[in-house]
Amino acid sequence: ETGVTQTPRHLVMGMTNKKSLKCEQHLGHNAMYWYKQSAKKPLELMFVYSLEERVENNSVPSRFSPECPNSSHLFLHLHTLQPEDSALYLCASSQEGRSNGYTFGSGTRLTVV
Amino acid sequence: AQTVTQSQPEMSVQEAETVTLSCTYDTSENNYYLFWYKQPPSRQMILVIRQEAYKQQNATENRFSVNFQKAAKSFSLKISDSQLGDTAMYFCAFMKFTSGTYKYIFGTGTRLKVLA
After folding, report:
1. What is the distance between the alpha carbons of residues B106 and B104, in angstroms, rounded to a whole number?
2. How far is residue A112 from each of residues A34, A88, B32, measured CA to CA in Å?
3. How far does the CA of residue B56 sit from the closest CA of chain A (Å)?
4. 3-state secondary structure at position B17
5. Which residues of chain B have pLDDT under 70?
6. Which of B96, B102, B108 to probe by mutation at the A interface, max A CB count within 10 Å?
7. I want to staple A68 with a disulfide (CB 3.0 to 4.6 A). Which of A49, A108, B35, B114 is the partner?
8. What pLDDT digit, counting tens, does each position of A40-96 carry?
């Protein structure tokens, strides 16, 4: 494992469902991120949490709701999604203030039907 | 605004040969960092190599090396002695420190296939 664990690995949900994605890191990092990866597009930063406080929300629709209960855990709560929200959702962590790069998880492949 | 361009959506290379993936970026910043990440079929993004813009010397990590041309804003990745395990998507990324945090901008990726 990489140090950043994401569950579930795959998720299929209907547009009226409510589900949550989970991310966990045991690297001692103090910043965590949600990215959306769609085919042929650059990775899109969705949310940034630093020291458990949300510091950035890149105009993400309210049907995506993040939660960071502590520095090791990050959730992305999903409700009333659209088919265009189908993508790979990647979680990453880093040590704030260092330029070493991020450690990524293996992502959750989300399909909205 | 910063942008990162990877002009080669797909490439292939024979095993044991050398391949170069291109990346250009646009910025008015002077201090920043550049990265190459690899994303194999397992989907985890793995850091391959990192370059600090203030360093003229090109970064090298085993079979991976970069050709960093700051004036031209070019940051290509060379993979020597390609191996089957190098088959993956490769993303170029630009990082700068702004508003108290480091932020990435990623390119669209190059899909590399190593042929046996």
Report:
1. 6
2. 18, 12, 37
3. 18
4. coil
5. 1
6. B102
7. A49
8. 888 999 999 987 788 777 789 999 999 999 999 999 999 999 999 999 999 999 987
